[in-house]
Amino acid sequence: MTTVPLTTDLAAPEGWATGTWTIDPVHTSVAFSVRHLMSRIRGSFSDVTGQIVTDHSPSRCHVTATAALSSVNTGNPMRDDHLRSADFFDIEHTPEMSFSSTTLRPAGAAGAGWVLTGDLTIRRTTRPVELQLEFLGVDPAGLQGETRIGFAAHGAIRRRDFGITFGLAADGSRVVGDKVDITLDVEAVLDVEG
Fold this sequence. Notes:
Layout: E1 19-23, E2 29-36, E3 39-45, E4 48-54, E5 62-68, E6 72-73, H1 77-84, E7 96-106, E8 114-122, E9 125-139, E10 148-158, E11 176-190
Antiparallel strand pairs: 1-4, 1-11, 2-3, 2-11, 3-6, 4-5, 5-7, 7-8, 8-9, 9-10, 10-11
């Protein structure tokens, strides 16, 4: 998908760096939580890949990411197998979910962070999503001397928007909630051209 930048450039925050960055799955967390009856179930995806391209103006940055749905982990193997089934992710036919950013804009007051908008695809259905994004900084001498960048983000989706309706009754009662909260902690390594 193509980046659709804002017409107004955004000022880069202190410590900003430009380049192409590869998401480090070992130091990245893609987590979610959803209501189940009276409790809240939390889970994550461990197999995540992607790329971040940063520009002198953050409004011209772009993010693409993919998560293998088979890597879901809620701490309960039976529940995880159910999530992989046709009732939820249907990994036999749609093994991945993907995200591609479209715009980045200020969240409001100066220092309030940004809003990252993009297209999220789950089960062959694509919907726009908004994430509240925070730049965490750049470490020029990471774990082994590599340059790293960090971001945190959070947002929410409605699973029915992606055709995942198991546990949602027509009368409004539910076993599993419709709203899914998403929390991302992303660390990426600067690509070095040889």
